[in-house]
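Two records follow; treat each independently.
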Amino acid sequence: MTRDDLTTRLSSLVGDAGLITEADRMSGYLTDWRHAYAGSAAAVVRPASTAEVAAVVRLCREAGVAVVPQGGNTGLCGGSMPDSSGRQVVLSLDRMRRIRGVDPVNQTITVEAGVILQSVQEVAAAEGCLFPLSLGAEGSCTIGGNLSTNAGGTGVLRYGNMRDLTLGLEVVLPDGRIWNGLRGLRKDNTGYDLKHLFIGAEGTLGVITAAVLKLFPAVRSRATAWVALPSPQAAVDLIGLVRALCGDRLTGFEILSRQSLDFVLRHRAGSRDLLGAVHPWYVLVELSDTLPGAGLDGLLETALAEAFDRAVASDAVVASGPAQVAALWALREGISEAQNFEGPSLKHDVTVPVSSIAAFVEQTDRALRAAVPGIRIVTYGHIGDGNLHYNLSKPVGSDDDAFRARAEELARVVYDSTSSFDGSISAEHGLGQSKRDVIATYKDATELDLMRGIKGLFDPGSLMNPGKVLPHA
């Protein structure tokens, strides 16, 4: 089938509004938001329904054309980018933005894959409920993308990641069949729980088109503190102390290095350091409760007083109102963008046991500084679940291209250290194409064989997002 034949038949399935073939209109779908990955495509297809997705997948299978599912294109590992051949089809879910239903009694919301995460949060709030997934790209990332990478964000400590927040899925399989698993059940013990195969699979086993997600009671009181610490070990000690005193009211616990904060203060307009004095580490601590007037400020102040008594905390401020809360979260959420102003940003998303964080940071920092004297290490993340974003910026005044050329070498430093603590080289960003091959070094060979077997069963022609997640055998 020629390209013209393919596009003609695709147009007959999705209409003019659902097909893009012009180079200038396709460009936004063929480059990721950081311009770190780029590809080419025969067409960008934008189905408006699950039936249209299924028809497109069937046609592409018949034509032997690979399909690359894409959500909000906010990923960091190139998982939603086509290759450079120009023969693949990008299947964007950005027209599938329907909220199919909200059930406050069952505490579920059913949404299509193209719905923006922030929209789900807002619809839930209008029903007096909470959808707790929260991350920096929530205004542009989609539920399908969140599911494909098993997104985590800042609320994992209390609510879990997308795997924990999902009850049911609707998926178009690589052969075009539709699996309707949209059940809002907390208990369904009838064999294999298939949804977990597709969550985190980055579109390699099928196209997620809709999901039933869990809702929670709305938060009606909140307390937030910015705490200065002498070390990562102090952060581990502090989270244990806060957990012991506050229980499951502890919703967020984010750590960041002074280097991370310096970049935000330098490049984010209006940001300021509320503590004044320079400290090596900081955490953002947040408590929440479903009860209004739950006295969380007092509870948090009690925990911090004990932290000072134990010499765990060096300084702290409890936010005095919503504006200050937003300002504190802006310091945390602004790190990734601010780092881009400092030249190439080599991003790593790793996880180790919480008990190993301090030793991991010490060992990894030492190895990186030995490899590149003057390297600026931007460490931050969700310390409550052991997930650190271990990003690297070049030494001041050094050459951009020379630093980029060492990306693979420096990634190995971070990943070798992660592996030595029985950690994972991807906590929430996925593998995509950036970690596809290196994962073979760090994942058990039997586990990889099982994953290849599952891929072969679902997609024997390897036409569903090929070249992602699985290393070449």
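The next record belongs to a different protein.
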Amino acid sequence: MTEQYDTLEHVLRAVHANTLSVDEAKAQLNHYDELGFAKIDLHRTQRQGFPEVIFGEGKTKEQLDEIVHALIKHDEIVLITRINQEKADSITAKYCHLEYHETAHIVSTPIKHIPKTKHYASIICAGTSDLPVAEEAAVTAEVMGIQVQRFYDVGVSGIHRLFAHIEAIRQSNVSVVVAGMEGALSSVVAGLVDHPVYAVPTSIGYGANLQGVTTLLSMVNSCAPGTSVLNIDNGFGGGYNAAMIIKMIEAH
């Protein structure tokens, strides 16, 4: 695998020192891989610390195949979100080293092959119906190299279940709280910890829940400081933001 250089000067010095060929330098200086229907961002890792993530919903099996091929060709970690079983089976049949996380609806580079951080993120889920969103957050963070601890089915209707795990949650450096209905769990957690909390509203609830709009507005109006709110069902965003916090901590 060709060493990656983080600045233009480093690339030019490597070519001058004959440690990098002209063709390899051209490949590293290319900003994207043109597929016609998509342009694969090849500098995302250098800019943001993680490769481009593929949103699987709405893409055909053939398009996903070409995108995955491009990522693998450039030695990038693969993370495809919102992918159904049929498309996942098509991808993993051709790229057998990739794995499908059924509950999270994610195809990724095997998590066990990715080194993990010392610090960890807590992924906290109110109810079993919220699990797909919580697992999207947890798997996203794990693929990004973050150690994760899961605390599931600890919603406010049986709040003693949360308190049984509160010390372990307090030991983490960031929490992602996934909840539907009235979304009260994020405010409860934020009032008990001294680290950032990312609240992810889900579309789980009865009619007046309005497919998650009620939960979203409840979380946005939280009286607990330290809470940031993601979009409805955006487990990926919660996991990604948590990963950025942990990476910042471990970089210093």
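Discussion point: Residues 31-111 form one domain. How would you locate this feature using only the token line?
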